[in-house]
Design the sequence.
């Protein structure tokens, strides 16, 4: 296991030089200096409309079009036309649902989970109004796992799509997406994966997992407030779009981008690529391309996050009045360091102010996974307390949090 260079990493995030400790990263990570530089550079030097013949417009067009090319390499898509850029995962999945709905008919079935963020549930449940049948795949409340056998019971010849999260933003569980996709495809259905809580922690490979659609937001992955949706090219070509009537059916991804993506934020995404290249250099590794550098970096990230999770989970496991909502293991192959818990006979919101006072940012609530919180009977406690760590967090920061918890529990 290679030791991670935290001094270098933290120097890349300007906000970390302040007095606050950020442990609400699943709600939104801190932003890289390289991202801010790219956004600023675009606005100052190339802030014009795309597609014109004059030089600055041509430069601007090239810059904006670099974003989907970078994202395609980042997630190992075949080509950049499979990448749709938009303002949020919630909106992109809703656009996908509205578009796909035009290819479905009454009586067709969609399976959703009870542990996803509402972004990958609500958009599909809405299609019930059009006569589609919605089925629910629920977690095992004892193990907090998604059981494949439970999914298979729900699948039939009428199943058109299964919507599932790659990593729960409450449980922190790493779901076996490749195996899920294989099962879903064996019934002739499609799979749509929400990777928002996964992307900051583990590398994504849409071709290896063979998913049909995959979405996540970059503002939770050290970038600007913008998101992406991947779709297999052959599917995107067949699905009706939502853009202007004169946009040709084969004009992907534009037919799914009404109003076009935000220009400066798209260009800002390249700052993530800059960071991964520099991070590899800081660890004496030189990748031949961006994907190779990202693979190296994510291994560093997983190893460091396992150390962070071990320290916090060992502490929480030692408290008899604390119940971890999710796996109690710190194994990097089973979970990410998004750690939720409740305290016996305590309202979750009563814990947070004392942590706030020490300038440590954590959170309580349902985190837009309200169906899970309701099914687990946790709404009566105002949801869970969630500590969500990423690779720029330190053991010293966790020690400070534990010291505060010692005064509360």
Sequence:
């Amino acid at each position: 296991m290679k030791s991670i260079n935290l001094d270098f990493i933290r120097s890349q995030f300007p906000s970390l030089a302040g007095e606050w400790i950020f442990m609400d990263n699943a709600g939104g990570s801190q932003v890289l200096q390289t991202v801010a530089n790219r956004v600023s550079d675009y606005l100052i030097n190339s802030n014009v409309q795309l597609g014109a013949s004059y030089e600055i417009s041509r430069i601007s067009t090239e810059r904006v079009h670099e974003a989907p090319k970078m994202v395609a390499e980042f997630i190992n898509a075949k080509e950049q036309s499979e990448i749709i850029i938009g303002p949020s995962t919630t909106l992109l999945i809703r656009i996908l649902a509205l578009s796909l709905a035009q290819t479905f008919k009454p009586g067709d079935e969609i399976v959703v989970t009870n542990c996803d963020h509402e972004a990958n549930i609500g958009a599909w449940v809405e299609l019930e109004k059009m006569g589609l049948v919605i089925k629910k795949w629920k977690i095992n409340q004892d193990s907090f796992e998604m059981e494949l056998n439970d999914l298979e019971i729900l699948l039939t010849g009428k199943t058109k799509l299964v919507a599932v999260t790659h990593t729960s933003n409450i449980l922190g569980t790493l779901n076996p997406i490749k195996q899920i996709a294989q099962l879903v495809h064996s019934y002739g259905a499609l799979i749509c994966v929400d990777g928002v809580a996964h992307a900051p922690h583990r590398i994504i490979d849409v071709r290896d997992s063979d998913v049909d659609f995959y979405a996540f937001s970059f503002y939770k992955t050290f970038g600007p407030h913008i998101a992406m949706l991947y779709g297999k090219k052959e599917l995107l070509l067949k699905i009706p779009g939502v853009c202007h009537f004169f946009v040709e059916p084969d004009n992907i991804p534009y037919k799914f981008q009404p109003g076009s993506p935000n220009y400066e934020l798209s260009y800002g995404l390249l700052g993530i690529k800059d960071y991964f290249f520099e991070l590899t250099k800081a660890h004496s590794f030189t990748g031949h391309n961006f994907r190779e550098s990202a693979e190296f970096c994510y291994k560093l990230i997983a190893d460091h996050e396992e150390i962070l999770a071990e320290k916090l989970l060992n502490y929480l496991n030692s408290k008899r009045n604390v119940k971890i909502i999710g796996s109690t293991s710190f194994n990097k192959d089973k979970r990410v360091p998004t750690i939720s818990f409740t305290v016996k006979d305590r309202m979750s919101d009563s814990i947070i102010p004392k942590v706030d006072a020490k300038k440590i940012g954590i959170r309580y609530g349902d985190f837009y996974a309200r169906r899970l919180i309701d099914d687990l009977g946790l709404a009566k406690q105002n949801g869970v307390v969630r500590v969500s760590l990423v690779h720029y967090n330190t053991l010293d920061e966790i020690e400070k949090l534990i010291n505060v918890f010692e005064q509360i529990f």
In short: The radius of gyration is 21 Å. The domain at 37-272 is CATH 3.40.640.10 (Aspartate Aminotransferase; domain 2). The longest helix spans residues 290-317.
